[in-house]
Amino acid sequence: MSPDESPLALKRRARKINRVLAEAYPYAHAELDFRSPFELLVATVLSAQTTDVRVNQVTPVLFARYPDARALSEAELADIEEIIRPTGFFRAKARSLHTLAGKVVDEFDGVVPGTLAELVTLPGVGRKTANVVLGNAFGVPGITVDTHFGRLAKRFGWTASDDPVVVERDVMELFEPRDWTMLSHRVVFHGRRVCLARKPACGACAVAALCPSYGEGETDPEKARRLLRFELAPGKEALHAELVANTALAAEIRQRTETFASGPATGSAVRDASTSGAEGTLAVVSEPLAAGAES
Fold first, then answer.
1. Helices (H), 161-249
2. By the 8 A CB rule, do 89 and 46 touch?
3. Residue positions in the annotated binding site?
4. How far is CA 217 from CA 17, 155, 194, 225, 280, in A?
5. In CA terms, which of 9, 94, 173, 289 is 20 to 30 Å from 105?
6. What residue ranges of the chain are covered by domains with CATH 1.10.1670.10?
7. Amino acid 295: pLDDT
8. What global pTM score does this model have?
9. Res 237: pLDDT
10. Among the listed residues 88, 127, 39, 52, the one whose alpha carbon sits nearest the alpha carbon of residue 281
11. Could you tell me which residues are annotated as the binding site for [4Fe-4S] cluster?
12. Close Cβ partners of 23 (under 8 Å, ≥ 6 residues apart)
């Protein structure tokens, strides 16, 4: 918030930004593939310091072998490590998942709990990961503050803090609870595609007129357009049109395009996948993952 902007004006501007982003990304959704709260919890832990695409490559194999918390808790660490190796930091992640699964079995009868207070008692799970699971698997509204969301919240003037807990609190005050989960998806989508960390594409930004940070990046429209990523990137117009026209099928369309781009998610494709060049994910952390750290 600028010194000249009142709290009411900030709230109105923030909600206008959300409305514009809703129009720009009617297909925004969780980009981790899952069929249950357990699968989303595991996928979110795996997503630290890698891409959702990479996680989506390994989870079909992981969940086929270990379909629930009990099976994962009884697995050999070496077997988990081999499957999740392409996601990076695989030893620390394997330990976190193994311990987490054991606690879900021992303390929650094998069922992933559906409250923030219970989720954050699990190894490696903090508010960020808990809000991902609550919002997308249980329908409980929450703000998910990853590196993308935190960066854009500051650029939008919604917060002055780098502390994810403070950012979460500040943003919650600007929006109705019913908007929190979808707002998180839209802001993260925008951060991955347009409002990039090093060089935001200001000249191609749908919320440029509402953003106090306009001008920090490329303002020339043509140059900015060349910075856009994923379905907004030059040459991806057909994919973007398909997503807009079929918002209910966005996850299926994404899965299909990921498969074409990355190859099958089984066998050697998983083992040989490189961990380099990760852009960041819905649950990314900015520091190297340590055993037991939040993902």
1. 164-172, 180-193, 221-225, 237-245
2. no
3. 195, 202, 205, 211
4. 18, 11, 10, 12, 19
5. 289
6. 7-29+143-238
7. 34
8. 0.86
9. 96
10. 52
11. 195, 202, 205, 211
12. 206
Separation between Cα atoms, residue 20 and residue 17, nearest integer Å: 5
**Per-residue pLDDT tens digits for 165-212:** 999 999 999 999 999 999 999 999 999 999 999 999 999 999 999 999
The model's pLDDT over 151-176, given as tens digits with 9 standing for 90+, comes to 999 999 999 999 999 999 999 999 99
User: Is the dihedral angle over the CA atoms 229, 148, 49, 254 positive or is it negative?
Assistant: negative
Catalytic residues: 128, 146
Amino acid present at 40: L
Q: Burial letters for 73-82: b for 16+ Cβ neighbours within 10 Å, e otherwise?
A: bebeeeebbe
Taking phi first (over 0 means left), then psi (-120 to 50 degrees means alpha), and beta for anything else, what does residue 64 get? alpha
- CA proximity to 72, closest of 52, 32, 45, 33: 45
Question: What pLDDT digit, counting tens, does each position of 251-294 carry?
Answer: 999 998 887 665 444 333 333 333 333 333 333 222 233 333 34
**37-138: which CATH number, 2.40.50.140, 3.30.1490.110, 1.50.10.100, 1.10.340.30?**
1.10.340.30
Fold adopted by 7-29+143-238 = Endonuclease Iii, domain 2 (1.10.1670)
**What is the average pLDDT score of the chain?**
89
Dist CA 289 CA 281 (whole Å): 14
The C-alpha atoms of residue 230 and residue 158 are separated, in whole angstroms, by 26
What tokens does 109 get? 């009868």
